[in-house]
Structure formats: structure tokens, C-alpha cells
Inverse folding.
């Protein structure tokens, strides 16, 4: 291991130009030695690279037992963008260039989680594991969960997760995954007791802090005091609330102001606007109510003005922001003004002050809104609200929103003590332990009571419904608003326009105020887009009839979870301060679009049964097999078996379409393809007697070959065959039944059969959806049967004496949800099968060799 860590240090220096800190090497040592890690170091100490470098180091080595895919999850999408940008810049001219992708609600670069490194929000990551992936349809709900199995999972800013929902589900997931993944949980602000309790709840975990690395404390720039100073920054609790005069008084070159609410940030910006213009100061506002294009431009500007590369240059800039920058963003200032927040959030904010070597900072901490400034909304105004909704409305009256009042108050009192105002590392650790321990005990009790959401995870697996999101990931209290001038844009481009997310009940309050002042018979205020007559799954919006419907009743606004389209005459947007009540005349533009990804289950090309199946086998060999050593090994350890998982996957792929060799299925498709080939100018061919995998019916790309009548013509052919042969029979369940019979012969009636064969069977049964547990009646002719025998022989599966089948319909054996390891294997296998199926369907020639 010593030589390996020396190699790691050399590798780290080659990639980053810096020798790793000792604590970073210790993280690598644990991870590369089959351990999981909980890492807690101060902000700016390099924890991001501490988690990423071991993965890069192990990726191209076969002598290290480590996953070949990394999923890096963060609670905020802005953090994903910032960290992804930093990592891509560092690996730009290395062998790892092009390895990364972002998958958030804003960027959808890799919605099937196929890249080597995926930067994702926790919402995206957990929804995948729970089988309701946010960017996919329910029909595709089992495609992505397997991406987490056999991967290296990093959870940054872990303290920001909701203890009852996302934190509990994350820990439940990690407990389930056991040996099947490696993970690293990272934070700057968890108490020692909480980390030790997490270690006890999880599998094979080591805790790394700076306590044992005194030399690192002397080297890390964010911890090194400026010459002549005893600490990096000092804190002063100021009287009253944040006011422009105080900001003006202490501004020198770089100032950051952090407010708890968007409205406060906007108010402070407007108070400073004229003065900053007169003084030549760059004044910037950043919060969650900006269009993505403006927010991304601002984030780039911040790195130029407040980033490490310009720390020695005068920028004369003031940033007014909210908690969107309090974690993960690599910027620094000399003076910070911040509203009070719980100590963990406050320390994250303070981490943006005097962050770099040689800097010293002053932090002013303020009370929050005065009583008369509190947002007001009366529960009694709305009828028939749920208990949860009423609770959310009441939160608007909490002037400490979005934080817990008690934690804010005790934090403020602690910071008033003289011994806590020189903010050294020792002081921050003491404050976290003193203030958070009791609150964390409540969270731990909640986690244990909920049993880490295992029951909710299994319920989500059972029905694959996004309705579980609110109980397992995040309590949905946000709404998406699109600002438009012409309501016809909502019908024409409903999914292409920029939107803004904000706290639902704040938006409801705004809408209520506008509805009370506008005659809705004369003008529209708000509406939604409703869908009808959907032609099929996963088709473009042009295939759907869309209708814009005005809403005039506030109770209906409350009940809707659809995107809300707002009239730009009454709801305002200014590129300098964002979405607001009074200023600005801008409105939603078209979203920035990259090359549109191919959807699963698109139009098909004609191929034979052999071509299609070999295409799947080739796709597995090329796209999946190079990264399979880790999951294959650890599935065997989990089940206590010595199964050849490569051969098992190949068997699943070979048998997945065995039902297409059924006589009635082939007769139907052969006749259809023959009719297609007879049409004038037909692009389709037909070879009688060769079993088909798919017929040709790409109605989008080839319809012009038939004077735009191809869809009409092919529908007529379908109707003709339907009258003669009836409905084309289902096929997925056939291979599912066959593989259980084969593996029963192979393993016998024992735990290996239960653990391996049943998940493999259900993977085949559900490779077109998520609910099938039956197989149809089927008969395979001698002629068709020879094709499956040929494939098995070609892949040296001679031990499998496959018999020719004729069966009556029946039910498949299904997994017991309490045996969750079996369900994990099903999720792992069905992902490989479905993605290989799509790749081979798209371009089987690419994979035939």
C-alpha cells in the first residue's frame, strides 16, 4: 500500500501540479484499500479533490479494486456547475478529458448516467435509485437505478440534506448497497458525535478530519493566518439588520453580502445601486430567481472578480447574494456581511471570506428582518389545504426562514461571546459541537425511527411513481414560473421557454395580490398548459395537442403542480435583480439547447434476430464490460457465490428476445415486413424465413419517400394483418421464463437460484417497462429454434442444454422485496439490457464485431 500511495502522490501532482496534503493521501489510502470515507475538513481545504483524485488514479489501473464510474452528488445545482467547471479545467489536457457530464434540472447532458464522472443533484441521484428518475418517463423508470450499483458515490455538503427525506434515503441506500459500491460523504460542519454515529450505521467506514494532520493545518491556505494575525478572520455581531450604509462604510475592494431571502438581497442591491454606479463599483446580484442564462453569466463573472486567480488584483466589486453561494463556490472576499443562520450554514458562508493564502477577513453578522417586513399570508385565505401545506404557509411568518429559529438564536448568542469572535479552526469545531449536537441527536433519532427510509425505498421500487418524491427526497414546495407576453407561446413552445423556480407559497402570495387587482375578464394573469390526445410514449411535443387554460381562482393555483405561465405585464423580471414585483420588462426566452439526446424507444430499423442479439452482445462488450470487474466481484461477495457474471449477462442478452422466435410473433412480423417491401420505392427489404428482430417503420425519417403517406400506408398494413392474425403477441415474458428453467438446471433449487436466476428473469420480463410478471403462451418451431442454439454455441455456453419450448401462459417467480440484494441485481441487469437493447436498435452494425 505504501508504494501505491507514493504512486498516488505522484499522479496527483501530475494532474494538479500540487503534492497532495497528507489528509488527502489518507482518504486515497482508505478508498483504495476497500474502505468508505466520511471526510470533514474546513471549507477551502481541498475536499473536492480529495474525493476525485483517488477515482482518477484507479480508473486506468487493473490492479486496484475500485469502481470505474463516479457519481458526484450535491444538494444545489449551482454547486454542480461550479465544481464541474473546475474539474473539467483541471483535466482539460489529460487522458481524462471528456469523461464528465452534468445531470441536473438545468443541464441534462447525461440523463442515463453513462459517463465516467457525473455531477448530479441529490434529487437526480436519489430519484434514479428509487426508480422514478426525474428526467425520464415511468416506462423507463428501471433504466437508471443500476448506474449507482458498482459505482463510486460522492455526497458533498452532506449536512445540507433533509434529515427526514434525502439524508435518510441516502443513508438507507448506502446501507443497502453494502459492498456493491464505494462511497465518500463530505462536509465541513458535522459534529464529531454525528460522524461517529454515521460510521456505526454504515458499512466499512473510516472518518478523516484534520485532527491528525497538524502539518496540513500549516499548509492549507484557507487556514493560514495572514502575517501578524492569530486567525484568518474575525466575527462581529452587528446591531440591527443589514443596511446599505454599513456595507458602504467597510467596503474596500471585495465585499460579499449574504441574505437569507431573495427579497432582502434585492432590497439591499437597490439601496446600493446608485452609489455603486457613482463610485465605479461593480455591483452584482445572485440568487435563485434568475433565468439560467443570466445566472450562469454571473457565476462566471464571480470567478473573475472573486476567484483565486485574481486575488492580487483590484476588482472593486460587491456581491449581494443568498445561500446559493454558501457552499461549494470557490470565491473569496475581504469583508462579508451576512444575516444570521445556523452555525453549519454560517460557517459555509464564512468560508467565502479570506479563503486564500495570505488573506484576512472581517465578517459582520446581522439579525434578520424586522417584524413589519415579514412576509404575510393568512392560512384562512385558502380553503381545503392539507395539513402539510398549512404548515408551509405558516413558515412564511418565521422571520428566520428558511432556517430553524432556535438554531439561529443560539448561534447568534454564541457569536456574541468574545472567545468565539476570532474564528480559528479550533473555535469553529467547538461551535459546531456545542450548537449542533442536540439538533443532530434529533436527526439521528429520526433516521433510526424511519429505519433509514428502507420501507419508503421499497415502496418506490414497487410502483416506480414520482409521487414518492415528496416523502423520500424533498418536500416539494417550489413552483416553476414562465414569464410571457403572448399566451400563445405557452401552447407553441411549452417546454422550450426559460423558467424560474421559487418557493411556492411566496409565488402564491404574489399571484393572489395580482388577481385581486386585475379584471380577469378583460385580461389574463396566469395559466397552465394542459396535454391531450398524446400519440405515444416519449415523443416530441409536436405529437401532443396542447391547450393553454387561464386560471382565475387562487385555490386552483395552490393545487396545481404544473408550470405556471405568468403575464409579463403584471410579473416583472430585470436581468440585474431577477424576478421581482415592480421592476423590469424582460420575459422568458428560449432555453439554451444542446444537441438533443436520443430517447429510448424511438423509431426502429429493420434487423434480423441474430443481428439484433449480436448487436446487444457487442454493445455490452464495448460499453459495459470494461467497467464490470468491481460489481461482478462484489455481487459474488454479497451473495456468497462464484457465478460467472459475464456469462450471466450474455445469457440474459441472448434470451431477452427469445419470445420473438415464437411462431405467431414471427408470422405476424414476417408478413408485415413482406408487405412493406412490396410498396413502390420501398426502402425495406425482406428475406423469407430469416427470423426478424425488428421491422422497419421509421415514420419520421422515411415518410417523404412515400409522398408523406408512409404513416398512413403502414397503418393500413397493420390493420390488414391485425384482421387476419389478431394482435401481435407480447414477447418479453418468454425469455424470462426460459432463463429460470435453464438456471434451475444449472444451480438447482437453492439460494443461488433465488439470488441470481429470479433477478435475471425479471430483468428480461421488464426490459420494455416496469410492471410485467407474467409470460404468454408460446411455441417455437424447429426452424426458429436453431437460431437460439446457434447463438448459445457461438458464445461457448455448451453447458446449457436448451430444450425447444412450447408452453401455456403463466406467472413468473418474483423477488421478495425484503431480499433487497436480489432487487439490486435485477436493477443492475435490467439497466445493461435496456441500454444495450437501445444501442443495438439504433446501430447494430456498430457493435456486430
Amino acid at each position: 500500500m505504501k508504494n501505491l500511495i507514493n504512486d498516488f502522490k505522484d499522479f496527483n501532482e501530475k494532474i494538479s501540479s500540487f503534492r497532495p496534503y497528507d489528509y488527502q493521501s489518507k482518504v486515497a489510502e482508505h478508498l483504495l484499500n476497500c474502505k468508505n470515507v466520511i471526510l470533514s475538513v474546513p471549507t477551502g481545504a481541498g475536499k473536492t479533490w480529495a474525493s476525485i483524485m483517488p477515482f482518477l488514479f484507479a480508473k486506468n489501473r487493473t490492479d486496484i479494486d475500485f469502481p470505474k464510474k463516479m457519481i458526484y452528488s450535491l444538494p444545489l445545482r449551482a454547486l454542480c456547475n461550479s465544481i464541474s467547471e473546475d474539474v473539467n479545467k483541471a483535466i482539460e489536457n489529460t487522458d481524462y478529458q471528456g469523461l464528465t457530464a452534468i445531470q441536473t434540472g438545468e443541464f441534462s447532458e447525461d440523463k442515463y448516467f453513462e459517463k465516467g464522472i457525473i455531477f448530479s443533484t441529490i434529487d437526480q441521484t436519489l430519484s434514479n435509485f428509487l426508480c422514478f428518475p426525474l428526467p425520464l418517463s415511468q416506462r423507463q423508470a428501471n433504466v437508471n437505478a443500476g448506474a449507482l450499483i458498482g459505482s463510486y458515490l460522492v455526497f458533498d455538503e452532506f449536512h445540507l440534506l433533509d434529515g427526514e427525506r434525502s439524508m435518510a434515503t441516502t443513508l438507507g441506500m448506502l446501507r443497502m448497497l453494502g459492498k456493491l459500491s464505494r462511497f465518500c460523504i463530505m462536509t465541513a460542519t458535522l459534529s464529531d458525535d454525528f460522524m461517529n454515529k454515521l460510521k456505526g450505521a454504515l458499512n466499512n467506514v473510516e472518518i478523516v478530519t484534520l485532527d491528525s494532520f497538524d502539518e496540513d493545518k500549516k499548509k492549507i491556505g484557507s487556514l493560514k493566518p495572514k502575517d501578524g494575525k492569530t486567525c484568518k478572520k474575525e466575527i462581529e455581531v452587528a446591531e440591527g439588520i443589514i443596511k446599505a450604509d454599513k456595507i458602504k462604510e467597510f467596503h474596500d475592494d471585495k465585499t460579499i453580502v449574504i441574505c437569507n431571502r431573495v427579497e432582502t438581497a434585492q432590497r439591499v442591491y437597490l439601496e446600493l445601486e446608485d452609489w455603486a454606479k457613482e463610485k465605479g463599483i461593480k455591483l452584482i446580484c445572485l440568487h435563485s430567481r434568475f433565468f439560467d442564462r443570466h445566472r450562469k453569466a454571473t457565476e462566471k463573472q464571480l470567478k473573475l472578480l472573486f476567484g483565486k486567480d485574481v486575488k492580487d488584483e483590484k476588482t472593486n466589486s460587491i456581491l449581494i447574494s443568498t445561500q446559493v453561494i454558501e457552499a461549494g463556490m470557490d470565491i473569496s472576499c475581504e469583508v462579508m456581511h451576512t444575516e444570521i443562520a445556523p452555525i453549519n450554514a454560517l460557517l459555509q458562508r464564512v468560508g467565502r471570506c479570506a479563503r486564500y493564502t495570505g488573506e484576512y477577513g472581517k465578517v459582520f453578522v446581522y439579525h434578520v428582518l424586522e417584524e413589519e417586513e415579514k412576509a404575510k399570508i393568512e392560512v384562512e385565505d385558502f380553503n381545503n389545504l392539507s395539513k402539510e401545506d398549512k404548515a408551509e404557509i405558516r413558515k412564511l411568518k418565521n422571520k428566520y426562514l428558511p432556517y430553524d429559529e432556535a438554531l439561529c438564536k443560539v448561534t447568534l448568542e454564541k457569536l456574541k461571546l468574545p472567545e468565539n469572535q476570532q474564528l480559528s479552526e479550533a473555535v469553529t469545531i467547538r461551535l459546531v459541537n456545542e450548537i449542533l449536537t442536540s439538533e443532530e441527536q434529533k436527526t439521528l433519532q429520526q433516521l433510526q425511527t424511519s429505519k433509514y427510509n428502507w420501507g419508503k425505498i421499497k415502496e418506490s421500487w414497487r410502483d416506480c411513481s414520482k409521487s414518492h418524491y415528496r416523502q423520500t427526497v424533498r418536500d416539494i414546495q417550489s413552483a416553476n414560473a414562465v414569464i410571457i407576453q403572448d399566451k400563445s407561446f405557452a401552447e407553441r413552445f411549452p417546454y422550450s421557454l426559460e423558467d424560474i423556480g421559487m418557493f411556492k407559497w411566496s409565488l402564491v402570495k404574489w399571484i393572489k395580490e395580482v388577481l385581486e387587482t386585475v379584471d380577469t375578464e378583460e385580461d389574463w394573469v396566469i395559466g397552465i398548459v394542459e396535454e391531450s390526445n398524446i400519440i405515444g410514449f416519449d415523443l416530441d411535443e409536436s405529437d401532443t395537442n396542447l391547450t393553454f387554460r387561464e386560471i382565475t381562482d387562487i385555490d386552483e393555483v395552490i393545487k396545481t403542480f404544473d408550470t405556471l405561465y405568468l403575464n409579463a405585464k403584471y410579473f416583472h423580471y430585470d436581468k440585474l435583480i431577477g424576478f421581482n414585483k415592480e421592476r423590469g420588462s424582460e420575459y422568458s426566452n428560449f432555453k439554451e439547447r444542446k444537441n438533443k439526446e436520443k430517447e429510448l424507444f424511438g423509431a426502429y430499423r429493420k434487423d434480423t434476430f441474430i443481428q439484433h442479439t449480436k448487436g446487444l452482445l457487442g454493445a455490452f462488450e464495448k460499453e459495459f464490460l470494461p467497467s464490470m470487474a468491481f460489481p461482478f466481484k462484489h455481487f459474488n461477495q454479497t451473495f456468497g457465490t462464484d457465478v460467472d457474471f459475464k456469462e450471466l449477462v450474455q445469457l440474459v442478452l441472448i434470451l431477452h428476445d427469445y419470445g420473438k422466435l415464437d411462431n405467431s410473433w414471427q408470422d405476424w412480423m414476417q408478413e408485415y415486413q413482406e408487405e412493406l417491401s412490396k410498396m413502390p420505392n420501398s426502402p425495406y427489404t425482406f428475406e423469407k424465413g430469416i427470423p426478424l428482430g425488428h421491422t422497419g417503420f421509421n415514420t419520421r425519417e422515411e415518410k417523404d419517400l412515400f409522398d408523406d403517406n408512409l404513416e398512413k400506408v403502414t397503418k393500413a398494413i397493420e390493420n390488414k394483418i391485425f384482421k387476419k392474425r389478431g394482435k401481435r403477441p407480447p414477447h418479453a415474458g418468454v425469455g424470462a421464463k426460459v432463463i429460470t428453467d435453464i438456471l434451475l438446471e444449472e444451480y438447482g433449487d437453492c439460494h443461488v437460484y433465488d439470488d441470481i436466476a429470479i433477478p435475471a428473469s425479471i430483468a428480461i420480463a421488464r426490459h420494455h417497462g416496469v410492471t410485467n410478471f407474467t409470460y404468454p403462451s408460446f411455441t417455437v418451431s424447429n426452424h426458429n429454434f436453431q437460431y437460439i442454439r446457434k447463438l448459445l454455441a457461438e458464445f461457448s455456453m455448451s453447458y446449457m442444454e436448451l430444450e425447444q419450448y412450447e408452453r401455456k401462459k403463466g406467472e413468473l417467480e418474483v423477488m421478495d422485496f425484503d431480499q433487497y440484494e436480489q432487487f439490486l441485481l435485477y436493477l443492475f441487469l435490467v439497466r445493461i439490457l435496456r441500454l444495450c437493447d437501445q444501442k443495438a436498435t439504433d446501430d447494430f452494425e456498430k457493435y456486430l464485431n
User: Anything to note?
Assistant: The longest strand covers residues 478-484.
